[in-house]
Queue: 2 jobs
Job 1
Amino acid sequence: MQIELRTQVIEPERKTFTNLVDRFGDRPASRYEEGSIDIQSVANFHYRPLWSADHEIYDADYTAFKLEDPYSFTDPRQLYYAPYVQSRAAMNEAFVKTIDYVEKKDLLQKLPAGWDALVGEVLVPLRHWEAGAELVSVEGSRWAYGTTIDQCCVFAAFDRIGNAQNLSRVGIVYGEGHDGALAAAKQRWLEAPEMQGLRRLIEEVLAGTTGQDYAAKLLTVDLTDRLIYGLMYNLLDEAALTGGAGAYSLVAQHFSSWFGDQRRWIDQLVKTWFADPTYGESNKAAFDAVLATRWAQIVEAVSDLAAAVDARIDAGASASVAASAAAVAADLAALGLTVPGGN
Amino acid sequence: MSAPTASRPVGVDLQENEENRALVEAIEADNDDLTIRHMPGIIRLTKNGRLVINQASVEQRLGRPWETHEFQMAIITYFGEFVEWDDDQIVIAWQH
Amino acid sequence: MTVSPEKPARKLSMKQRYSALTHDLDWAPTYVQEEEIFPFTTFEGIKVHDWSKWEDPFRLTVEAYNKYQAEKDRRLYAVLDGFAQSQGQVGLTDARYMNAMKIFLQGIPVHEYNAHRNFSYLARYANGPGARFAALCQSMDELRHAQTEIHTLSHYNKYFDGMHHWHHWTDRVWYLSVPKSFFEDAMTAGPFEWLIAIGFSFEYLLTNLLFVPFMSGASFNGDLPTMTFGFSAQSDESRHMTLGLEAIKFMCEQDEDNVPIVQDWLDKWFWRGYRLIALVAGMMDYMHPKRVMSWKEAFELYFEEQMLNGLFKDLEYYGIKPPRHVQWAIDEKEILSHQVYWVLYQFSHAAAFSTTIPNAEDQAWLEANYPETWPVFKEVAWDKAQRVMDAGGRYFNPGLPQLCTVCQIPMGFTEPGNPLVQCQRQSVYEGERYDFCSDGCQWIFDREPTKYRQAWLPVHQIFQGNCGGPGGLPAVAEWYKLGPNDGAEYLGSNDQKNWLAWHGQTPKEA
């Protein structure tokens, strides 16, 4: 290939694509913008779906949560595919370092008795909660209206299956390299009374017992996550350090760090829904409906989990979950929402 | 009826670059009657029946740890089926 | 990408680990019915008795996926940045090469994105965890392809016309309803048909016919970014091919009652996919200044040899036969590209790419590669077009073409074995007449008339007044948001003027 040395600067005809100029003005666009704004089709669909005669292929009516302009929501993390995989590759590398170290030093075999039971019987079964949450997230990826919401959903789905796989690895290391501990954990997920609240909840959400609105399902899972993560990866991280179970803290940090990242886009989405000039009030009403149907169930399910923790170690789990629930309720009330139970 | 699977060609197209040199050498060493064809940026490896990629063979030539998962960095396309993909070996063949 | 030398030896094999990390996450629900969680996998009549039989040879974990994909993207974006910094567009063989990439940008990224959304659908609604995880990885891959394509071509958009409003055109402009209707047909079908349509027919059977011309053409014509994107995407494509092949085998193995359903889908989607790729045939024979191979050669190698003589021998085991209308495609290989490009040439005043008469060098290549059919086209079409140019004009078709109801390509195809006779097929359904370009498209319509009669046919829509106006084509062009430099004739275009200026030439010197 001949390479010519240029002595003149070639002026570009334009700085970016026309849709971005129309939206943002005549300035260069970021790769996030070029790859995420206006990518999903919105017009002139050729056929109605065989599996849903009432909807178009992409349809704002797959949910009660709407935006006048779907692209008024953008991911505060500005993640498109490339920075997403690079970010997660770095996070995975950090987790692998931790789990390899824990394995090499047999740290999970050296836990105090209560913590040992906690890991095998309460933590590792949560791989199935993550697997269920993944399905809810990827459901959002199909039904969301607009690329920016879809993208956050598919990345959340991949994150959650990653979490499930990481918890599975903890289970394998806990089981000294075999999958016996995973089988036992699945039995607990299926049968232990303390797990049934969560299992019932996620099954009902997936089946759509209170409706098939993907956003309502995402919010239900997120509200539950706030309580689970507060318990398992914040409270217990601290308790592990004082309880002689340092390995637990080493592992937990990865999950709480991830959850901080997850919160950013969900909080921004909720904020955008509530601020929408056309749909703000109806979006709030839709969120109220989620709370009315699921909040009590969520609190009860995670309270059962907390009781399971308290039965094994001394960390004040039940009190902590009650306080977390109250704090979340207060946050929601501050947004103008109605939380059942009067909190 | 179709020709027996042992006599039908299978193959893989790899990116032709410095990094894949050891991989190509290992495949050459481990597969008799291999045909190699060079196209711009692509090296095509074909043979009849079964094509094997051995982890140990690649790692030995490469001089650093190599896991079979890494094979997907090199591959452009293939014909046949991945009938095995384990820690130690990848096998491409037709099943029927 | 280092592996710790002190990593403990694994007690679980790769297969067992993979199973522990994917299949084992799944459980049978007891508080609800399974069908409530997975409501879409029975209505198509496909019977599955054991989802655990779904095989995924790649056995990727999330960790491996992120690691390798991150590395691929680092390399790709480094090339894109370098090309932009060095004004690499000046090194193309010719500016008219970009017309192939304009069609690419207008016709492909939106549909990669559609594939992403529908693989998310499979990742949610397939009952088996192995199938779901493979679909989730493919959903991520397709999003990657959509975005890397847009980013790859973003640099060119700054310097060439016909790219700046690509998505707006994708959903409206006449030739782009060919890919739009194809992908929307697949998305509106059920999950198993989707797997055969896209997973198998498109990603396995026809993928090389789509990608090799574009990517090799990029390499031959100095388009480093597209070539690099192509290589980078191809390693994802090998996973997609595997998923597609697994899909068809899984369905055939689960129940022999599935085989005739699968065969019908294969017949339909081969033909729809083949007609979609007709645009590529026209592009590779006419729009690449330096050509890799002819459409005829590509079809012979990538379809007849590799698929009919390779893959289909393997599928015989299940009772699967080569596609129903395959002989028609084989018969067309000498004339397809000529017919398609002639249509594009006539109508590029209403398109977002420019066309031009093949120059002397082009014509010599066409003669050498199509010794029997090129001379006919040269006489009946191109010599006439040249006479119009010589007299100071430029032939554009003043009317609007009839589109095939199914594939939506203008009806420029001919009867097999008789290239001087227009092929017209018709079906009447509930008192309305529908027109088709071929037996294949008619057969597809007749199977599902209530689906295909819904189509948003661009020419019908123009005549119904739904595309701007009144005011004829200028009003339509305005509704399409086509700029004055986005189409028509290449010679004398803005693209050509810029090209000559970059190389220190004036049009007179060219």
Note: The interface with chain C takes residues 1-3, 8-9, 15, 40-41, 64-65, 67-70, 72-79, 81-87, 94-96 of chain B (CB under 8 Å).
Job 2
Amino acid sequence: MPTHLTENFSRAIVRMRRAFGEYDFDSHWKWGSGSQLLVGGGYAQYILGWKKYARDIDLFTISPRSRFFDHIKPADIKFVTKNAITLVNNVQLITTKHENPELLADSFDFTMSKVICNLNGYLLYKHPEARTQYFKKILEYTGSDNPLGSLKRIHKYTNQGFRLKESSIELLYEDLAKCIKSRNDPEGFTPETTQLIRGMYDKLNVKVLLGGKEIPLDLYKEFLNAN
Amino acid sequence: MLDQIKKKIEEVEKLLEKQSNCVELLEIFDEVTLAGGAISSLAQRRTPRDWDFFFKDKETAELFKILILPDNAENFKRFETSAETNGFLTPNALSFPGRIQFVTGICGYGAELVNKFDFLHTKGWYTKKDGLVVTNEIMEAALYRELHYKENDMPRKAVKRALKNMRNGWEIELDNFIEMTMIAAFNKGEITNAYASN
């Protein structure tokens, strides 16, 4: 496997050392290598030299659960969500687990983000289209359990000049519709945006009374369209 | 801004006179609404990409089409005009030289018409009777290139337009973007052609 131990990677290590200042980070790092702590998405793009700057470091683990996670002191935790522990210094430990780097990359919502390195700077997996799409500024949405989070990223990347692929939009709508129906709890938004999303759940999940039973409005609309 | 609009109106009237000697054409034109991107572009001191004129109802639009088009005019084909270049016909509009477009797919008059539009900056309108109607908010949205989505019948079309405009430097607040896309996700029945919902 080619090594990409670039200056960017060294900077990443320095930042992580800072983030875990109270610990002997290097020993954790070694554990990290042993228990397969991985860097994915935006920060991996940064390590590979694609982008000049990346604010957040997302660290992933593949099963079994990294021992690294057991050594976080509460003082270093900024906040915890269902899928991640966010530490000081913009380091995020993603707690969902995957069998191997390819499956981990598969779980990412955009093709250009499907890049995985390990903590020694080795490129472990790269989607064949990831680099091309990144440099051509193509945003291909490939599905997500958290389409609202993807929507936030679409907003960000479109502002940076990325073009959402036409074929992605329908899939995004499908995932969003599922999310609205199941009222997924919005994560990673400001309280105002969270409130707006919950309001939209109420607004869109309208039900009609049919034969004394409550039927979702969109199902009823589909029935009317079909007939 | 108003001078440019009046100049264009005169240009269209001359074009119509040349195109046909039917006086009813000018009578119909007296009641059209100029709306859409043209007023927003003028507010930004840019040349409008299209000057869109809308008819008050479907029947008037249909009559206008019959009166102005040559008998052999077909959809998605060019047709002869009195000007040097040809016009183009689609199911939703008739395009004439000089970036003049008569929209037939969506109809309405003044405020009732622009209420069907998706973004605030496109809600300015002009009619011969009422003159130019544009609020400070509309002008500000156009000047500062800000997208403010107002719920309408074609949210999926609005999402596409928003994504395109954002790449061209327009801004939309994250909350408004989320709201628009969530509405679009739930709007399966939307007809995807521009101006085709009526």
Note: Chain A has nine helices and eleven strands.
